[in-house]
């Protein structure tokens, strides 16, 4: 794991804008980015709307929040959280410099 980066994850303007669209008709909820054991490559991303906890890192932009728990933070050091909308589907994506390989679906990775 490339913890030498020791940088917080970065969230693109496009990801914050999409989160604002999702939250437009309801009370705003943060987007949680977590790393869990499992998946076809060893680790998998868990991306969902969730309330922030006191110990979470909170990244803010466009009136929205993205939260990362302290256990997941080292796995996401220097990562970029984005939103893509392509013919094959629309989703939040993570470009993670700590991942040595990932699966084709983009939700599972190894270090």
Please outline the helices and strands.
Blueprint: E1 10-11, H1 13-22, E2 31-37, E3 43-49, E4 57-61, E5 64-68, E6 80-86, E7 89-95, E8 101-102, E9 108-110
Parallel strand pairs: 1-6, 2-5
Antiparallel strand pairs: 2-3, 3-9, 4-5, 6-7, 8-9
InterPro entries: ATAP, ATAP_core_dom, FeS_cluster_insertion_CS, HesB-like_dom_sf
Protein name: Iron-sulfur cluster assembly accessory protein
Domain Core: 10-106
Provide keyphrases for this structure.
mainly beta, 1 helix, Hypothetical Protein Aq_1857, Chain: A, 3-stranded mixed sheet, 9% helix, HesB-like_dom_sf, ATAP_core_dom, 111 residues, FeS_cluster_insertion_CS, 6-stranded mixed sheet, Iron-sulfur cluster assembly accessory protein, 4 iron, 4 sulfur cluster binding
Radius of gyration: 14 Å
Instruction: State the distance separating the first and last CA atoms.
Output: 6 Å
How much of the sequence lies in strands comes to 35-45%
Number of strands: 9
Average pLDDT works out at: 85
CATH homologous superfamily (4th level) name: HesB-like domain
Measured as a percent range, the helix fraction is under 10%
């Amino acid at each position: 794991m490339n913890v030498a980066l020791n940088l917080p994850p970065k969230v693109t303007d496009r990801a914050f804008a999409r989160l604002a669209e999702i939250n437009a008709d309801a009370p705003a909820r943060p987007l949680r980015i977590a790393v869990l054991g499992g998946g076809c490559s060893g680790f998998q991303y868990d991306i969902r709307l969730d309330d922030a906890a006191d110990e979470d890192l909170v990244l803010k932009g466009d009136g929205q929040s993205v939260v990362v728990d302290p256990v997941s933070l080292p796995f996401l050091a220097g990562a970029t959280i984005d939103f893509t909308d392509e013919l094959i589907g629309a989703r939040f994506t993570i470009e993670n410099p700590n991942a040595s390989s990932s699966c084709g679906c983009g939700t599972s990775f190894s270090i």
